[in-house]
Amino acid sequence: MADGPEHTKVLESKKSETYERSKSGSFSLKPGHRRKPSWPLNDFINKPTLQLLATKGVAPPSLAWRRKLNLPVSLLKEFTVTVSEAFKMARLGLRLYRHVLEERSQGRVPIIDPFNKSVTRPQACHGVPLGGIGGGSIGRGWRGDFRRWQLQPGICDEAPVLADQFSVFIKRGADGHKRFSSVLYPGRPEELIPPKPKDKKKAPEPPTGIATWGWNLKGDKSTYHALFPRAWTVYDGEPDPELKISCRQVSPFLPHNYKDSSYPVAVFSYLIANTGKDDAQVSVLFTFANSTGGATHLSGGHSNSSFEEKDGVTGVLLNHKLKHMSDKFTWAIAAQQSQEVAVTTCETFDVEGSTPYDAKAVWDEIAHHGKFISMEARGTAVSKTSTKSKPGKSIGAAVCATVVVPPGEEREVVFSLAWDAPVVRFSEGSAYWKRYTQFFGRAGNAAPKLVHHAILNHRSWEAAIEEWQKPIIDDDTVPEWYRITLFNELYYLVSGGTVWTDGTPKIREGAENGREVTQEHQALAAPRKEVPFKTRVLMKLTDVVLSDAIDSDPTPSTSPVRSPTTSPSAKKRTPKAKHRGHRHKEGRTPVEPIRRSFSLDQVSDGAEGGSLGAEVGRTSSGRGLAGLLRTSSWLGKVEERDGVAPSLSPLKNGASGKTLSPPGTVSRLGAVSLEEWAEQEGGAERKAGETERNGGRGAEPGTSLEENDGALRDAGLGSQRMFSAHGSVASVGSQDESSEEGNGLDESHRDPGTTGAETDRGEAPLGGGSEQVGEGLRVAPSSAHAAEGTAQLRPRGKAPAASLPVRIDASGAAIGLGDDLGDGEGAVGIEPVLTVPETEPFVDTHYGVGQFLYLEGVEYVMWNTYDVHFYASFALLSLFPKLELSLQRDFAEATMMEIPERIKFLHEGDYGPRKVAGAVPHDLGIDNPWVAVNAYNIHNTSTWKDLNPKFVLQVYRDFVATGDMKFARDCWEAVRSAMEYSMQFDTDGDGLIENGGFPDQTYDTWSVKGISAYCGGLWLAALRAAAGMADALGEFEAARCYRAMFRKGSAKYEQVLWNGRYFKYDASDSSNSASIQADQLAGQWYAWACGLPPLFHDYQAQSALRTIFEYNVMKIRNGKMGAVNGMELSGKVDDTCMQSREVWTGVTYALSATMLYEGMAAEAFKTAEGVFQAGWCDHGYWFQTPEAWTVDGRFRSLTYMRPLAIWAMQFALKPPPLTAAAAVASREVQEAQAALSPMQTFGTSPASSFSGDSVNGSPTSNGARQKRRKDKKALSPKRATCCSADIGDDEAQN
Fold this sequence. Notes:
InterPro entries: 6-hairpin_glycosidase_sf, 6hp_glycosidase-like_sf, GH116_catalytic, GH116_N, Non-lysos_glucosylceramidase. It is built from 33 helices and 38 strands. With 1294 residues, it is α+β, with helices and mostly antiparallel strands. Strand 10 (230-236) and strand 11 (243-250) form a beta hairpin. Helix 15 packs across helix 29, helix 18 crosses helix 28 and helix 22 (1013-1032) packs antiparallel against helix 23 (1036-1057). The longest helix has 27 residues, at 447-473. The protein starts with a helix and ends with a helix.
């Protein structure tokens, strides 16, 4: 450690060579390090054409992703496992195969299905998708095809529907002797090329249907330009050399606009410029099949009809009958008619070409007449009016806009496409209203209104988009590729299977026109489908191969949830109780969630240690973290006070008298003397907090803490009340306060109907708003609306129907759990059904914006996968912060759930509860989101070590960024429970959680054991964040406890993991223990993003980052691939497992953000550019960025959530105003402390709370860091490890 100052000097000298600092303290690349312009516009469009388009304001932007339409579409190469990896994962593969077979047999989409190779092979074909957020989306390729249909939750069909096209027809001269026509798609699709006859003498079959159309476009003079959410296609003299056509594609993705951004609609605006000498009659034809992707166009029952809206908007409705559903689905295609533009429509044509009016007739009619003519004018009895289609027949509709363009002039034609499916229905039957129905109604007739609104407002949308993007596009201090990719990676918020509801409870069966009735939807209890014989045989074969798959759940599904570590006696197998995956057989009612608050104060004294996590200590007295000091194993040896050591004795359940000392756990449970010590410490902490907040004068008589919060107001937090009663959400604050506080968002979040005065600290209910049920057992109130989504964290003042935990049966009825919960016999008491008054009004608990879901990936089908959202969440927080808060609140609610349903985990073949109270879920489910959480069943994620710290960090980061006190209060109980739950994983009391020797983290094939750089760093950062949040809410005792644990853990972390250059992968004796993990500083990254002090020395962080840059980045194709996850010091890629040898795109972006925080701008952009180079240039992953690729470019899991982490880089460069304001205040405090005492340069006092416990999380904070580096020479490495807040805890009393 003595080499610290020397390391700092070397780093400083290297840094000066690569970037320069402005007067404001921000860093930017020197001119020599800036990349040349990415795809210069003049290289793609002729200068005269570009000038012409620019004068009309429709030219493509100077910065965009570009591609010529005549370039080939390459097939993408998928990764393969090595022989060694296949051997290691063989049993998992067989279990997964069996699970997939069962899921398919029941008509469900498996969460992971590596055995289903799509007919549509992955291609480098995608472009900017269509539509807003959460209403379903359609992809559109860069060649103009409509593909990647995501209109039903969890279902993605990649294949294009080739009938969906724009085509152009041109006539020139008085007699129209010059004619040009073509589909605006380069070349003829392979699907339409007829196969060669086997008999060479036999003539090939004549083309039919859309194959008869003119696929004449060469594409060599046409270019595609993408800057999400807009795209431009410029046809520079194609098909008519004297005609310039520009198409602008616009979707309503408008940051901070929670209304228009939800609309399922897109606009196509065509500017047509005539550079010839003759008038040009131009007809633009938009054809569209009545389909939702795949083979749905052949299901039958579809019909079309024409419509006319105001302002000349004319088009066709395509009423689509959903298979096996009664929900409405309607398309609308339309164009705007004016004095110059004539619009005609064709209601129905036969796409396949087997009737008189088919696709060929449509093409011939427009080519001859330039428009659709009436039936009488055609002189035929064939009607174009729609009747319902028959099964096996495909129908389409068409809209034609015709305009005459004089020489030297331009005309504009505007089309729109909308889809109206007001209900989102999940596979288990639960259904919700989509967000946009709040503005366009729920009747299923909104499509014409949507296209009308889009056509009239698309210009204002474009203006809003340009205003948002311009500051970033014009920022020449960052590379051009970064500015382009920053926006284009946002495609996933549309193409990620997103669902956005209006926030109302789920729809009841029989609901009409939005009026709900009392009968509950019964799909959850629907009988299983009969499994086909072939599938049954295959499933049985896998059972025979896997002897552990034949057998079964060792405990009945009705038993209470046990702790993550099952006792030996509980592992006995009971062959009679068979389970297949995590679904239920016919006749078995699924066990629905119990909403329960997890706390160390809760006791469930079962035969094997109870149901809430036996490894966690329990207490029969005290509350919250005060009890934690007396019970938790992390405390270790308690310091002697005045020469007297506290006595230690086993804790007993106050109700039953049984000693709670589960096998294999470490418990140091204090008795009276330790309790007194804890109370003394808590009192001193509160007194110190009041003194700090009162400017050193202490709390004056007759004043409250909120009257002494000037320091907080100075930090830009207004007059927010920064404390709560000793309890949790339910006991804190009045609604009037929370709605009037500054929250950093667009508007205040007022929950109608919520009232209630703030509870005095001395009158707080035990356990944070929980009610005591017998001695030693406290259970938080639950809601009888639990099955309808999130309800555990109810608005304050809204009393629940009952104060006991609630389990929801299959019909949605709430069943109370009696006082015998955890009575030692493993039984659950069932009380009478709890009812909710029908007159109880709906209260929006999601900040007025509803609920939001998006998939982990189109191949990994789980909603809001949390360990991945940890990386991706910066995009939502930056652009739609209310949606981010709503999502986090959903996880706060889910954290409090307990779902006793037993499921099989495929990695080991063992069984466990679906959800344990206090464990943050891996995801929010798939078939019944918000209710049946944890769809992921590879591992038991209740034992994962990264999920709970990630939840705490995200909640605190979002709180700091938005300043939303209501959000903080809503989530505090879940944050506290998550922290207490994770403390069981500190098995030796050293302040750090330990990994369990298997992949118990987001790297779910990469085993890790003991203390690890990744999870250990996240845990340390979470302790800091929890302490900061506790301070903000007045929970000073909790803050002190978290800081005490941080002091203990940080010293151990450095001792066992730091090797002088970087932090080792873990502290085990495994062969890859010393691996250089690219993500080793994830905790430090989030500490910066949260505005928290660093976890360790700057020189350590920078040394680790430079080692990662040298090995993980630059040794892989000279930095052109991103950062490989694991590397050995020998320079060899760590091939321990599949994931260690992969490059993870989102992790690379996160690593780059960490580098930015540490002042390494050149390295940061070089690292991130590798993802751009490999994904957006070399390997064809544009608009489908995968989770990972190997060093040879083979992908795994296309179209993935994690690459949204590029917005973490922007978050580092331009932090939110409240984060920046708090950071500035923190920097001033630190500089003042450094001037007074060099011992206090790594943090602030414990009572400095939300702002004082922060440092700037952006490169502009380097001024403070430069000063710290100078002062650091006077610090011993050991002393500098602790933050001054922690030093203050011990030394303020001396």
